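Students often ask why we bother encoding 3D structure as a string. The short answer is that it lets us treat folding as translation between two languages. Here is a chain of 219 residues written in the first language.
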Amino acid sequence: MKNIQISPSILSADFSQLALEIKRLEEGGADMIHIDVMDGHFVPNLTIGPTVIKALRKHSSLKFDVHLMISPVHKYIDDYADAGADIITIHPEATENLEQSVNKIKKLNKRVGVSLNPESKINLVENLLNQIDLVLIMSVNPGFGGQKFMPEVLEKVKYLKKFRKEKNLNFDIEIDGGINFENCKEAIEAGANILVSGTTIFKSNNGDIEKNINLLKLK
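And here it is in the second language, the structure alphabet:
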């Protein structure tokens, strides 16, 4: 079993203090920093772009786990690679040629992820599972933080875990959306080894980030 890693989403951070918030996450034991990039087109919200990521890069040594919810995504991959992303995750629906976009990320020496929305089928990515580093299962409809977890997506997580074992592959299974102290156990048991969480990490237990991260890891 892969070690459980926590990738806190800065979507729930204080945006006026992002550098300090990232420092708090690092000191609190975060394994990486999850950065949601939304364009107001592919999803109904706007967040941050490569300029902000580049500015934040010098404030942390943690991996930047950058989730691109933008369309068309292919032409912007270079910008996020240059800004300091370590993992670049894209959606199949946001590119005309998923394999071409995956290969572009790999050529830039970045880890590559593919994200599946709650309604997206696994067959969108199944033929590329031997080429990618991570599958991100969305357990809410992407676009906003603070939504309720959709337990039905755990069937995809279970399928991916089984597929990975049968094919002797090594990709990570990440889950994002409404992850809290109650459902994290279900997600881990289903096969997720990277948990993305925002509100729970920043707001629970009076903002005790270290405690919240450890609770999500079931420590």
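Translate back mentally: The mean pLDDT is 96. Keep this in mind for the problem set.
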